[in-house]
Amino acid sequence: MRSLSIFGATGSIGESTFDLVMRKGGPEAFRTVALTGGRNIRRLAEMARALKAELAVTAHEDCLPALREALAGTGTEAAGGAQAIAEAADRPADWTMSAIVGAAGLVPGMRALKHGRTLALANKESLVTAGQLLMRTAEENGATILPVDSEHSAVFQALAGEDTACVERVIITASGGPFRDWSLERIRACTVAEAQAHPNWSMGQRISIDSASMFNKALELIETREFFGFEPDRIEAVVHPQSIVHALVGFCDGGLMAHLGPADMRHAIGFALNWPGRGEVPVARIDLAQIASLTFQKPDEERFPALRLARNVMAARGLSGAAFNAAKEIALDHFIAGRIGFLDMAAVVEETLAGVSADPLFGKVPDALEEVLAMDHLARKAAEEAAGLRQQKR
Ligand code: NDP
Ligand code: MG
Questions:
Q1: Which value does ipTM take for this structure?
Q2: Would I find Transferase among this entry's keywords (predicted)?
Q3: What is the full DSSP assignment across 214-263?
Q4: Residues within the annotated binding site?
Q5: H-only helix segments in the chain
Q6: Quick one: 97 exposed, middle or buried, by C-beta within 10 A (0-12, 13-18, 19+)?
Q7: What is 2-147's CATH topology?
Q8: Hey, whose CA ends up nearest to atom 42 of ligand 1?
Q9: Domain residue ranges in the chain
């Protein structure tokens, strides 16, 4: 029987993973080693019961008593805190889903790779903050990373069996989010509710707002650079409002291989779960005649400055991605809390990058997680200051 662990089980990706695992037979088909969550203890305990998990971990120590109580009599062990989450990744599992949101997902993912595991990677921040270290760790330990972000799963599938030396370009698509056709002035004045209302995808709050600002696409450009290793000038983003084509790979013979799929993350998760084969996944089937037209347009870097900032990070590499992500996370916290405006987020990130770029760590290829965390820490501090100044100016 295959064994698996799900990090971030109670989130949007975690729920979709749980759904697919249950449809494939749940505890009859898989031995669940560990499930982790944050504050949603009721749901974590429900999932642990349904999958007869050996271990359930909450990220927050103060939630541990509630988790213990919810799991009483089930035989599932309960644990709490960031350290317990890291240790859960030490427990052997054939397949591990990395779906914690934010930089907190980096540590368990790295631990799983050090043990040579197969890691389904949804947590994009891992590749953005520590791409070179992550890829090297996987290679040195014979581990496999399967991309779960839909665009990267699409590129992975389009590249299957191909000679990467013949790849001229990789194009990832962006829906354009809720503000695709909004003017700069209207975007500037948007509310949190407007920013998190994604037209095509149902996702967690943070990634939905990142889609509206196109910070999500910015992270994905960096992710593409780090995961597939193509030079930045070969990587493009194009706006495609229908979210049917997820990525295209262009070859030296002029051919473009496109990957099409429904806007349902269970497609990419299912691909990773069934890899190296394919298996039935219960997503809606695409009716091309019904869709009638697929359109594409050039992204506007003036209204969506995150894309321009991503280009700088793709060129600088090293730990610039850790600074970029940390600044983006802080800026997003401040936007959600109503302290800064929507466009202030990009300004905070740009000012943070400028502020920390003189640090020797900025362009350094990381040798250890500690360096990534040090840059993360430095950038968070700088971003807090930048956000504070923006708030005063409002
Ligand atoms: P959610 O916010 O829906 O879920 C996040 C999960 O992480 C929850 O289980 C949450 O627990 C847990 N969590 C939150 N904070 C911490 C922490 N500090 N330590 C440990 N666990 C924590 O996120 P999504 O599922 O939307 O996204 C997960 C990852 O996948 C992100 O990196 C995102 O960018 C990426 N991704 C998501 C896509 C999507 O469609 N949603 C698409 C492509 C990539 P709890 O809720 O119990 O507090
Ligand atoms: Mg994506």
A1: 0.99
A2: no
A3: THHHHHHHHHHHHHH---GGGEEEEE-TT--EEEEEEETTS-EEEEE--S
A4: 10-13, 38-40, 123-125, 149-151, 175, 198, 204, 211, 216-217, 220
A5: 12-23, 41-51, 64-71, 82-88, 106-114, 124-140, 150-159, 184-188, 192-195, 205-213, 215-228, 266-274, 288-291, 306-316, 320-336, 344-356, 369-393
A6: buried
A7: Rossmann fold (3.40.50)
A8: 149
A9: 2-147
How far is residue 40 from each of residues 58, 80, 346, measured CA to CA in Å? 8, 13, 31
Q: Is 214:339 a contact under the CB 8 Å cutoff?
A: no
pLDDT tens digits for 33-86? 999 999 999 999 999 999 999 999 999 999 999 999 999 999 999 999 999 999
C-alpha dist (Å) from residue 37 to 80, 123, 305? 10, 14, 33
Strand 245-251 vs strand 256-260: parallel, antiparallel, or unpaired?
A: antiparallel
With 0.80 as the threshold, say if the pTM is over it.
yes
Alpha-carbon span 110 to 89, nearest angstrom: 9
The upper half-sphere exposure of residue 165, i.e. CA atoms within 13 Å in the direction of its Cβ, equals 0
